[in-house]
Amino acid sequence: MRLHYLQHVPFENPGSILTWAEENNCNITSTHFYDDEKVPKHNDYDWLVVMGGPMNIYDENNYSWLADEKLFIREAVNSGKVVIGICLGAQLIADVIGGKVTENPYLEIGWYPITLSQEARDSTLFSFFPKQPTVFHWHGDTFSKLPEDAICIAENNACSHQAFIYKKKVFGFQFHLENTEEIIKNLLIHSKDEMVPGTFVQTQKELLLHPEYIKQDNKLMDMFLTQLKRIEEEGG
Question: What is the pTM of this model?
Fold first, then answer.
């Protein structure tokens, strides 16, 4: 299997997704937009992973590559690729499939539980998830409106749209299951100015207090990817 990922800043890489891909003998390629790298042809990869970043989807004046990235993601979705978006990546996907991305009522930074829908927990892809796993968040915007073909599968008190599935092959996660301790530490270095005190904003100390959540969430991501790969290989 060939996995390609889109990375927007040096300090937000795919984390545990890369570990899983290596362990599953995937051919891994990438586009680093901050280094002006180009996207591949769509027949050169099977899965596309779109990472997070501090920019917003409408920041095209500051990040000119966003327009080309949106077009690339739209083409990937329309060509039937498996597409997985994390945070900004999920927002970009939501935008190109006809959803709406706006400022969330709350800035959400830290470890907070989400509630998965019963429909999600009944599915093979998410049946092993706890009903309310505690996951890592770092976002101010969200996909506030989704098209009819997209199914919202998770929510919490800070954000009513935390994850979605679109046409069985496209997945958007507002939260981070892939983060490692190193990624979180780098976020605290490069994005600490975003940590404006609020109802759903934890302190730097609190963000680094939970290696058990990192281990749990990486395992959930690993199991999700494994199930997704199996379903794809079986033609499901």
Answer: 0.97
